[in-house]
Amino acid sequence: MLLFLLLFPLIAGGMVFILPGRGHRNRVLLLVSLAHTLGVFSLWKSVPLSLNDFLGLDALGLLILSVVSVLFLMVAVYLMGYFKDEPDMTHRIFTGFLLLFLAFMTLVTISRHFGLLLVAIEATTLSSVPLINLVKTKQSIEATWKFLILCLIGIALALLGIYFLAVAAMGNVQSIFIDKLISHAPQLSMPWLKLSVIFLLIGCGTKMGLAPMHTWLPDAHSQAPSPVSALLSACLLNCAFLSVLRVAQVCQAAGLMPFLSSMLIVLGLISMGIAYVFILGQEDYKRMFAYSSVEHMGILALGIGLGGVGIYGSLLHAINNALSKGIAFLVTGNIYRQYHSKKVDEVHGVLRRFPATGAFLLAAFLAVSGVPVFGTFISELIILYAALAGHHYVIAAFYLLFLALIFMGIAGIVLKMAQTPPGDQETDRGGREHWSMILPILLLVLMVLLLGIYIPPALNDLLQQSSRLLGGID
Amino acid sequence: MSVWLDAVLILIVLLGLLIIVSHRLGSMIQIFGLQSCILGVVPFFLYANGIEFFIIIVALAAIVLRGFLMPSFLYWAIRHVDMRTEINPTIGIGTTLLLSGLAIVGSFLLASKLVFPMKIASDMVIPCSFSLIIMGFLLVIGRMKAISQVVGYLVLENGIFLFAMLLLKKMPLLVEMGILLDLFIAAVVLGIVVNNISDEFNNTDTVQLTTLKD
Amino acid sequence: MSSLILHLGILLAFPPLLLGVITKTKAFFAGRRGAPLCQPYYDIFKLMRKGSVYSVTSNWIFRLGPLISTAVILAAGIVLPIAVFKAPVQFGGDIILFIYLLGLARFFMVLAALDTGSSFEGMGACREATFSCLSEITIFLNLTILALLSRGLSLSGIFLGGLASSWMQVGPVLILVAASFFLVLLSENSRIPVDDPETHLELTMIHEVMVLDHSGMELGCILYTQALKLFLFGSMLVSMVLGLMPRNVWGQGLYFILGILGLGVVIGVVESAMARLRLNRVLYLLYSALIFSIFALIVILVRGHV
Description:
Structural class of chain C: mainly alpha
Order of helices and strands of chain A: HHEEHHHHHHHHHHHHHHHHH
Radius of gyration of chain A: 21 Å
Order of helices and strands of chain C: HHHHHHHHHHHH
Oligomer: heterotrimer
Number of domains of chain C: 1
Helix content of chain C: over 70%
Number of domains of chain A: 2
Largest sheet of chain A: 2 strands, antiparallel
Strand order of the largest sheet of chain A: 1-2
Helix content of chain A: over 70%
Number of helices of chain C: 12
């Protein structure tokens, strides 16, 4: 089953490059993502399972894989009606690389070897380049360049971290399979392990968008086509987060968690602070949501750093954040389609002109900023509880402060877009929204709402299992 | 043998300094090629009394890929570029030089604190690789031209490769070849993007890439 | 006493020949016959016999500067061993005296240049002082490294001690030191690529600008001092590279002479092959020299060869 999950999108992606007909390609995309999602959910009963030394799926991997798969399915549905007049070649390349992107993200979640993990992450970077650079404008090339050079540097540093890990393991463990490292963790050489953790954190943190290595993120997210932004924000960042979690697993086993925690907390708070600074008065609504991604990655890092019940909260937040970022970026896709501008000032009266999109925009805002009833509220609350329970009052204070400030920052921008009266030439209702651009967003909103009031027992089980892997308490 | 290895390592670091000082893109690329070729010789000194087949393969692959393929690829990427010199770097050349001097000192101090769990032919391998990594990093953040940044990235990769040499015998070949392949893919993609940049902007200057900012 | 006389004799007689060798080499590469080897001697004698012209704005410091600097550099030469001959004056820590004597000479030259009141000479003095800031540290570091390696604190101990065995152990490091030394030598003695002693192009001159107003005997002194300084630096470099020992006087002496002449040829080749660097890039050259010696020092310290 694991091999199927990995190879099916890979082969389909290869095939799509030579498949004629836009409709065919769209159907293949939809079929593959549906099969992928079904496949992933069929695995829920059987974790942990391992195929060989290199490939295997544990609770953490399954958690992230499910998020990736669901979001990908939603984006695939969304894409049915997204492209209208792009050249055939562009569509071909886009769909092909999209499927490869899915395959490599799957590989990230199922690899049980640090080297393989890194190769998979690198592969996701490379396969997402054509997606970001789909429409070749000066801005998109600039964004791609920043994305590429920063992620490559990050991966190079992570590679160095992996070599250090290998040196740390040279004495007794002799290999860097994740399971073996965890079971033999106390025998690792501590100075090298510490060095390795630092470099891995910097490397994976770059990919995850933690400040101050986040500078590629707003550019790439704002320049990529909106469905791709949704995938980057909801899937790719979570994959990078998973790699940080793998490092945390080893640290946890080796008793280095305090060392890692302090770094994670600092990075997390810096990310939230920086996100606030740039969200305030942001002129580009996609960039605003991108900075919100930086903020939420900061929250994830903070939750892991706080430990205890914070880990559970952080994992739950990873799901919630992915869902709400999916909503946010898909909605921006709708808005951009109608207004042809990313400037906040040029978007008026969304609520009046496009009631559905307008409502979703408000939902996205509420979900992203963690307002009660939405799932994000619960997970942010759990992380706050973790901070208070651990007597980290200063951290808790900063956390609340940034959350409140960012809430106000986003509110100012989104409410302006939604509620200002439409301009004169905009009073007519624009083109109708295609069903495929409404349905996935609606589903995502329902999911976030559901997680806000009720966590299904199966998911709760999985979260607890994952949290235990990281040494958290439920 | 250790003396020769030391000499090679020092030469590699000095070539790194030379890359920093040279302001022509062409000579940067050439010096990088030379550095990589010399780097490819290191495993022969490192494993002087136990050369195995795969070590030769890795070394040759490094020399061919980094020493020849990559530089010619970069040359191809700058064929349309008019301005072939680096003007107004964000971090001045002198400052970069002094910082790399500090980096060398720091690397040696750091490396003297770390105990490598295996006997190495020369204790200068680790500090030299650290120094190269930092120099590459300085180049990436300090230069404006896309090509200079690529060369910086490649110097950084060279540093990592130098460290990887130490693991050549203990760790599987898989990792090594993975890196070479990785590097190659990276160069191809970087080249394509650089090419895009030069088509769009008429020169590979990242200074002009300043439309996206807050 | 006899050793002092011998030492002074070498210092007085030999240096201008080195300048001659350099000029000859450059002439060879330019495809000319060039001035005779002894041309610098003729120049110095000619200048010594001439009268001097003094500007009305200058005072005694202008006249005294070149004389003092000649005397000071000669004094520096006395603490430095030459070839196989130990220095007539030596004590632990004379490295510092040596470096400061060089600095003192420069100080008086700079004062003399400033005394003319010409902004042009002031500029030259400023450049000279700026570059020497960097080269002085580098010389210090280099001598420190050599002192660490040879366990001698006096110049004689360093250059006539056990550098030969160090070459076996840390050869690459010593090559670094030698390279750094060579770069400093070029800059301190205003050779190409740092400065061109031949031209009088205002924008790029350093040393030559500073001595533009001097004439007659003072200019002769300056010319000789320049040659002497080059000889001192060359002698340090050659002794270091050859790793001389104070036995087998004739053989080692011959090596030394060949070494010094070879150095002259090398400098000549460098001058023919390279163009003068732009002024801001000279700084990079000096930074490089500094980094070379820092690199060498840190290797030696970390390695524990001390």
